[in-house]
Specification:
This protein is mainly alpha-helical. The protein has 24 helices and seven strands. The chain is 67% helix and 6% strand. It starts with a helix and ends with a helix.
Amino acid sequence: MGFRSHAALLALLFLLHCCGSALSLKSDYALTVVENPDGEEGEVEEEEATADEGYLEVVQPTEEWQTLRPDQAVPAGSHVRLNLQTGQREVRLGEEQLKYWTQEHRRGEDLQASFSPEELKQAIKNIKEDLSAGRPPDAGQQDYVASEYRPLDELKRDMAQLDLLVETDVQIMKRLLEQLNSSSCTTEQRLSLLLELEYLVHQVDNAQTLCSMGGLQLILQGLNSSDFRLQESSAFVLGSALASNPLVQVKAVESGALQMLLTILVTTQPLLVKKKVLFAVAAILRHFPYAQHHFLSHGGLQVLSELFRADGGGVLRTRIVTMLYDMISEKEMISQAGVDGLLDTSHEERVHQYSKVSLQEELLEMGWCGLVPQLLDSTEHDDREKALRALLSMVPVCSGQYRSDSSLLGSLLSLRDQYQEISQTEMSPGEDNDYFAEIVELIDALQVKIK
């Protein structure tokens, strides 16, 4: 018992001595007395280190305890203790470091070279001295640089050659049109050239540049080709160039493109050709009352009615009905804008131009009041929706025929019941109007207007 008291007293004195030394050194470590796992007398353990001292050598801790010299420091977060048996400080990885430390991390740390601030300063000083003294690099270094890097003059020559290969869109279109106009160009090459042009003319400026270069005439020549593949590709390029591009629309009408497109629709052509031609016709008519007037005066509705009747599969019918609906809606919106708000000079001119387009009257004369309801027989929901919208827009001139068309009235009742049931069974919780409910609303609106 006396021996243990004597040992405890010595430990307490040594602890006070260490605390005094720590205070004089302004140490950042906290000491705690812990039990020795081997049953020996106590050790004083320092909690995880929080700061490194000045220009001391930094020790990389491991999982095992290792002794620290007075001139060594440890990274923040390390676990440091004071061994009372040896009087030496010991360090190992902290708890968080041990948790995430891996063998790969340790291997990477071993490979990293550590430099003291004095060594780094001396290295920078040596570099500055070498530069100020103008010392040439040794021969070995020159050979290494020459083998790894290319001379500047050679790089400049390569960059100059690359600059010659960079083409603008205008240069590309000029090259494509020259090749397309060449007599030695094969059909396969022409198809490839037209595909590249179609990609470029989606941009408004490129499409206008195509016209200024005379490319529109080359495209129209492709429409007159006896090869239906060239006709299809040419119509595709033309439609892409016309889309939302008023300048190209004017040039196309003046060049006789609309008549050529209608002629192709009248003649016997493959379905793919007619689809692309309808695409071009819709693009040239969109928001262009002059072209629409030109279309009606050249029998465009008659051509479309014949095409509608001949299209038993319904592939072209939806496109035709959509085109007619767009034309009717455009005129109605222009007229409504004139009633609601102030008009500027350009708007008044558009209203005047649309007044010359007698579309609905000709729809009545050409029998479209009986043709459009046929699209309701389609099994596709999209086809039925477009047919209902077109029927609604044609009510002002077709309401009389709608009332006497028992087939149409029966179809509307049947479709309403069908979509009402679909809308109720497939409506998601919280949704008031889904796609099928909208179709029901269209049918209700049409029935109200027919009565």
